[in-house]
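ligand=nicotinamide-adenine-dinucleotide
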Amino acid sequence: MPLFGHREFDAHEQVVFCHDAASGLKAIIAIHDTTRGPSLGGCRMWPYAGEDDALTDALRLARGMSYKSALADLPYGGGKSVIIGDSRTMKSEALFLAMGRFVDTLGGRYVIAEDVGISVDDVEIMARATRHVAGTRSSGGGDPSPATAYGVFMGIRAAVAHALGRDSLDGLHVAVQGLGHVGHHLCRKLAEAGARLTVSDIDSGAVARACKEFSAETVDPEAIYDVAADVFAPCALGGVIDDQTIPRLKARIVAGSANNQLAEPRHGAELARRHILYAPDYVINAGGVIYISHEGPSFDETEALAHVARIRDTLGEIFARAAQQGVPTSEAADRLARERLRPVAKAKTPGAKATAAA
Ligand code: NAD
């Protein structure tokens, strides 16, 4: 399994393989870029089929965090960690304490938070072994998922304004895939704004809750791509936009919280070719990381949410640039992120970098 020659390797600064025999922890921490500051990113727990799948996820997600922080104008770099294992059966206090100790060895170059398969409670356990955590109840903001959902909601508004030329979501039909931490909160915001919902999840309890609370309709998980909705909101796992699903989409807009929605970068171009407006995942789902970046003794929720709401303007700029430059929105977002990373890199002195990463 090559690292420097890996297809997802993109000049990542550091990749740490972690093993703790006592707890059974097997994890990978990937730090992509600390130019803007310490790398910040969630920890995912997933039963990967192989170590290469875990490394691929860690490398891709870490780079995504660098771009996300740059476009959200945060003083952070990009990092991500993955724990190889089934979150339903393999969680233990010892496992999360071991993970916390590994994070601590990095001295603040990586700040850990929750992600798929990892709850705020799990991060609270890690916090007993390291202070380099974010998104805990004690650090100020708590669970970032409602803020992520709010950012996705504002992003959908930007996409609807650009593609459909309307401000109101009243009567808009949204198909939501995944009713977990983010999907459920997103449904609430959309229902409050008058949108009509069709939802799917592999968890029938989550579906029943959404149907009851938001008068949502439901379809089988595999049928969500065929729903004749205005917006398709992927809020489950990544890689759902691919050669098989794109031809089935009826929606004019793809805008949801899932990370790495495009199976491959070329699928961004394919969406554009079919006049489907894609809200780049790492831009629209930045609400959680923006929110936790405000944590600290002077945490002000109103200020944090106002910062999250700026996702709407950033996406508006990306949609306009993509149209002007004749490139897919995914490419316009990457270009803007690289532009925002570069000036900081040029302005930095080696001393400044060490300070930022401390
Ligand atoms: P979660 O684990 O709470 O929820 C995911 C949901 O998707 C679960 O209910 C699961 O049953 C469902 N699901 C899995 N496979 C499915 C399928 N094939 N069809 C339909 N539903 C399916 O995760 P979350 O925190 O809500 O995050 C959702 C997505 O958003 C992830 O990709 C995550 O990386 C991304 N994201 C989350 C945050 C956050 O603040 N939580 C921030 C940024 C990005």
